[in-house]
């Protein structure tokens, strides 16, 4: 009479840890449902907390901010609590005894790791941030579902998940790199059209004793104030009488005595580099990029540099006469900042 031996399952024949009747679709969708319920619950209770503590009270600056922070804290605590409780309850229903802790832990740790990596990339590798952040954001969203799928399926299915995940990651990386290259090319084209200027062509610091507000990046934005189209970037200074913005514009637009975009314009003189115009608002304004009056040096190619002159004591013509156009390399070296093309 022979003796039958039962061997341990190999990695390729490992039994699934999911409970009977639980398929991959349910494994994948349950964590997403838990996170959705947690988000809705946290949002409702966060707003309810804010409404409760602020009921019948007048908003007074920092006090209102404190109420909002309290609501956000309540939302965070509730969201985390509902998520943990929901994943534990789901694991008890979806997995066999002895296999319930791993999916919960992985579902919680996965998004945290992905978001921590995203923060690290943003801080230490800003040039690589756009494509990598896209991949990490997708990983954070998919991590809970992948954790449940991985823990609840057999080794062959896990191999399929690895191949599918690798293909998806490759697709995201390639797509993000393409978008990054396209975006970078567009940024280069816009910056090339900007009339970048420095004082005497050498420095971003003024000869007037102004204090420059140094940025880590020079923001390039779409047109504002009197400019109907194009892009702009500015240098910001704290000057006697107010804040001065020297705004470099790819296109200044027409000069008309009748209001255009709530500004009238007249030619007031010239400098060796180009024409001087004054733009005055016909409407009220709040803060920069709008201003009551701009003095603008318009170059022959239609680009220009403007300065808000209604609050600054230093004559605008003197300031604009000291500015000389430079290339991107010299501008970035003088300001210590690269360019960032904003949506």
Number of strands: 11
What is the number of helices? 7
Distance between the termini: 80 Å
Q: Based on helices, strands and strand pairing, what is the structural class?
A: alpha+beta
Largest sheet at a glance?
9 strands, mixed
| Model regions low in confidence, pLDDT < 50 over at least 5 residues | 4-14
Number of domains: 2
Which range best describes the helical content: under 10%, 10-25%, 25-40%, 40-55%, 55-70% or over 70%? 40-55%
- Following the backbone from N to C, one meets helices and strands in this order, namely HHHHHEEEEEEEEEHEHE
Please state the oligomeric state of the protein chains shown: single chain
Share of β-strand residues: 15-25%
Indicate the radius of gyration in whole angstroms.
30 Å
Mean pLDDT: 83
Shape: elongated
Secondary structure layout:
Layout: H1 24-54, H2 62-94, H3 101-124, H4 129-152, H5 155-193, E1 197-199, E2 211-212, E3 217-222, E4 231-239, E5 242-249, E6 263-271, E7 274-281, E8 293-298, E9 304-308, H6 316-321, E10 323-325, H7 328-335, E11 338-341
Parallel strand pairs: 3-11
Antiparallel strand pairs: 1-10, 2-4, 3-4, 4-5, 5-9, 6-7, 7-8, 8-9
Brief digest:
The protein has 343 residues and is an alpha+beta fold. It has seven helices and eleven strands.
Written description of the protein model:
A hairpin with a 5-residue loop joins strand 8 and strand 9. It contains seven helices and eleven strands. Residues 4-14 have low confidence and may be disordered. The protein folds into two domains: 24-188, no CATH class; 197-341, no CATH class. Strands 2, 3, 4, 5, 6, 7, 8, 9 and 11 form a nine-stranded mixed sheet that branches. A two-stranded antiparallel sheet has the order 1-10. Helix content is 48%, strand content 18%. By secondary structure, it is an alpha+beta fold. The radius of gyration is 30 Å and the shape is elongated. It starts with 23 loop residues before the first helix and ends with a strand.
């Amino acid at each position: 009479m022979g003796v039958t031996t039962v061997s341990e399952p190999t990695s390729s024949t490992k039994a699934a840890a999911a409970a009977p009747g639980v398929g991959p679709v349910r494994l994948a969708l349950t964590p997403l449902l838990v996170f959705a319920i947690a988000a809705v619950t946290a949002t409702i209770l966060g707003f309810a907390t804010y409404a409760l503590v602020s009921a019948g009270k007048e908003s007074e600056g920092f006090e209102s901010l404190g109420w909002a922070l309290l609501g956000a804290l309540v939302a965070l605590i509730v969201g985390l609590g509902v998520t943990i409780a929901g994943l534990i309850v789901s694991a008890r229903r979806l997995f066999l005894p002895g296999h319930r802790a791993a999916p919960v832990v992985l579902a919680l740790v996965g998004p945290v790791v992905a978001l921590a990596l995203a923060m690290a990339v943003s801080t230490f590798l800003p040039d690589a941030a756009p494509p990598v952040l896209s991949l990490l954001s997708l990983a954070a969203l998919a991590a809970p579902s992948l954790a449940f799928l991985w823990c609840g399926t057999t080794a062959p299915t896990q191999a399929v998940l690895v191949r599918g995940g690798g293909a998806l990651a490759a697709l995201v990386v390639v797509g993000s790199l393409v978008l990054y290259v396209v975006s970078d090319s567009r940024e280069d084209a816009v910056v090339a059209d900007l009339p970048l200027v420095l004082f005497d062509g050498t420095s971003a610091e003024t000869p007037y004793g102004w204090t420059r507000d140094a940025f880590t990046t020079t923001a390039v934005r779409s047109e504002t104030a009197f400019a109907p189209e194009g892009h702009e970037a500015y240098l910001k200074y704290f000057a006697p009488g107010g804040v001065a913005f020297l705004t470099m514009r790819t296109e200044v637009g027409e000069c008309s005595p009748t209001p255009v975009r709530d500004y009238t314009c007249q030619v007031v003189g010239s400098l060796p580099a180009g024409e001087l115009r004054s733009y005055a608002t016909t409407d009220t304004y709040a803060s920069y990029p709008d201003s009551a009056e701009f003095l603008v040096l318009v170059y022959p190619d239609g680009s220009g540099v403007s300065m808000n002159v209604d609050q600054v004591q230093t004559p605008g013509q003197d300031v604009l006469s000291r500015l000389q156009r430079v290339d991107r390399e010299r501008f970035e070296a003088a300001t210590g900042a690269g360019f960032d093309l904003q949506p």
